[in-house]
Every structure is written in C-alpha cells, then in structure tokens.
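ARCHIVE CARD
CATEGORY: sequence design from structure
SOURCE FIELD: tokenized fold
FIELD CONTENT:
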C-alpha cells in the first residue's frame, strides 16, 4: 500500500546526489508533488500541531521555509516543509486527512514540492539531529502506522465501557461455568478488537 497515493515521489529518503551541490548527501525525508490542482496538503497521521509558520534559522527547522510540524501519539514529529501557506494553529489537534497547508517552495527549495520528514523526537530543536539517527523512512513508518490503526476496530474506551457496564454484571449473575467462560471470551473479543490483550486464556 502506497501512503503517498496522489503524489509524485520526486526524491526518495536516504543518501542521494544532491541536485544543487552534486555531492552525496543524506536526504532526511521524501520530496512529494501533489497532483491536486488546489495544491492542498493533508495530514498523513493525526496529531498535535507544534509548529505552524515560517521557520527560523537555528530552530531545528531552518531552511525548511513555512513548516507545519505535527507530533503523533508515539511522540514522532511529522514535518511538512516548503509550504506556501499554513491552515492550522499551534496546539490544534488534527485528524488524519485534515487540511494543514498549501504546497509551495518557501525556504531552501528550487521548485514547488512538499518535503515530508518524520523525526523520532519533537524536542529540543524540533528533534533535529545532524546524523540520520533522528529520522525514519517515511513510507515504512506510515505503512506500519496504518496497519496498527486498522487492527484496532474500535476505541479502547468503548470496549471497556461495554465490558464494565454489561459483561461484568452478566458474569457475576451467570449460574454456570460455561456461561462465565463464554462471557469472558466475549470480553476478550472486545479487548482484541480495541488493540488490548486478552485476559482470559
Ligand atoms: Zn526534501
């Protein structure tokens, strides 16, 4: 599954010959060009906006132009760089697929594109590291992230509410061991569907 459907991948993650300097350099993210005529950029994963403006030199995002940076629920930072406009505010909680800005060519960029980078940390300096240690390969990260999301068919809180409100009283009122065992099994079905571990083996 390609997490970047709707985009052309113009420069992959990893070591490459830099288009300007003609020397081998590490590319910390992927370069994408959207096929959408409105050039709208959407969040690849949900999270909290921690940066949404022109980046400052020395901040850890210098040269990235106008950047939206979003911290996901694992603490990883998703940087959307070289934007032409920002549509979100710091502190805002975004859902996956929500609009965040417009593709552009701000900062150190030769042509309009989205530089998308995933950092392992969001602080200090927005998780910037000189070496490749601080970033992950975005395609693999997103594929793994989506796979785990799809495994959870329901919210953990919803599953636990059903267990507490209905299954536990039913278990207490059950007259036979077979009934109790069946109720325990159903509770585990709910736990697994919401990404939790079984409690009755
Ligand atoms: Zn790039």
């Amino acid at each position: 599954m390609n997490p970047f459907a709707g985009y052309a991948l113009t420069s992959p993650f990893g070591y490459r010959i830099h288009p300007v300097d003609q020397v081998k350099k590490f590319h910390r993210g992927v370069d994408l060009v959207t096929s959408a005529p409105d050039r709208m950029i959407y969040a690849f994963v949900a999270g909290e906006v921690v940066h949404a403006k022109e980046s400052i030199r020395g901040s850890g995002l210098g040269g990235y132009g106008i950047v939206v940076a979003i911290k996901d629920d694992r603490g990883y930072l998703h940087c959307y760089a070289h934007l032409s406009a920002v549509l979100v505010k710091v502190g805002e909680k975004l859902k996956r697929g929500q609009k965040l800005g417009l593709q552009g060519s701000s900062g150190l960029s030769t042509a309009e594109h989205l530089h998308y980078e995933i950092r392992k940390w969001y602080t200090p300096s927005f998780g910037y590291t000189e070496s490749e240690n601080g970033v992950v390969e975005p395609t693999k990260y997103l594929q793994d992230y989506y796979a785990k999301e799809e495994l959870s068919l329901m919210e953990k809180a919803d599953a636990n509410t059903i267990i507490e409100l209905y299954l536990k009283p039913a278990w207490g009122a059950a007259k036979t061991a077979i009934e109790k065992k069946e109720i325990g099994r159903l509770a585990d079905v709910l736990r697994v569907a919401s990404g939790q571990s079984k409690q009755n083996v």
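CARD ANNOTATION: The chain has two domains: 7-151, 156-193. The chain has three helices and 13 strands.
SHELF: design records, drawer C
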